[in-house]
Amino acid sequence: MVAGRIGAVVALAAALVPHAARAGHQPPADAPPHLENTAPSIDVLIGRFLGALTAKDRRALQRLRVNQREYIDVIMPGSIEPGKERRTFPEDKAQYFWGVLNEKSVYSEIALLNGYGGRKYKVETVTWAKGVKQFDGYTGYAQLRLTVRDEKGDAHEIDTGSVAEIAGRYKFISYVRD
């Protein structure tokens, strides 16, 4: 009888642990959403981006942009005007949207490394081709356009994706330029 109760308690605990673990990682409802591995400014983020290009470091480029959970849990639901009701997406649709964005970003990373990798750059101008927009929970900086000069003095225009700013911290959403 005792063994049966212990087994039931263990089974119940095992069933609750994943829920408790998820619940333990949820920020309070009034806390701003959180992204990992962010930069304290746009300038620092761009510096890290150019550093990854110089080093031809694809993994570093990937760390500079949102991951799957950040995109699905923070960016997608917050991609609305402030004050509007947040959207919810079934997990399969959220996974699909992430998959499309991630695949395009991966190809963009490869193109960026092939086109600009291995050289050191100095930033001359930073513009946002599609502007800056406030969303519910973050500010979006759309379509980064960098004018840079390499160590030989040659000018280059590097066009890439968008950046999210949450509570003064910055991270690429994607490297997709459209």
Offer a quick outline of the entry.
The protein contains five helices and seven strands, in the order αααααβββββββ. By secondary structure, the chain is an alpha+beta fold. The N terminus is likely disordered.
Spatial shape = globular
Pick out the low-confidence regions: 1-28
User: What is the succession of H and E elements?
Assistant: HHHHHEEEEEEE
Number of domains: 1
Q: If helices are DSSP runs of H or I spanning 4 or more residues, what is the number of helices?
A: 5
Terminus-to-terminus distance: 65 Å
Quickly name the level 1 CATH class.
Alpha Beta
Structural class: alpha+beta
Give the proportion of residues in helices. 40-55%
Give the quaternary arrangement of the chains: single chain
Largest sheet: 4 strands, antiparallel
Rg over CA atoms, rounded to whole Å, is: 20 Å
CATH architecture descriptor: Roll
CATH topology description: Nuclear Transport Factor 2, Chain: A
What is the count of β-strands? Answer: 7
Mean pLDDT: 85
How much of the sequence lies in strands comes to 15-25%
With strands numbered from the N-terminus, the spatial order across the biggest sheet is 2-3-6-7
Features:
single chain; 178 residues; alpha+beta; Nuclear Transport Factor 2, Chain: A; 4-stranded antiparallel sheet; 3-stranded antiparallel sheet; 5 helices; 7 strands; disordered N terminus
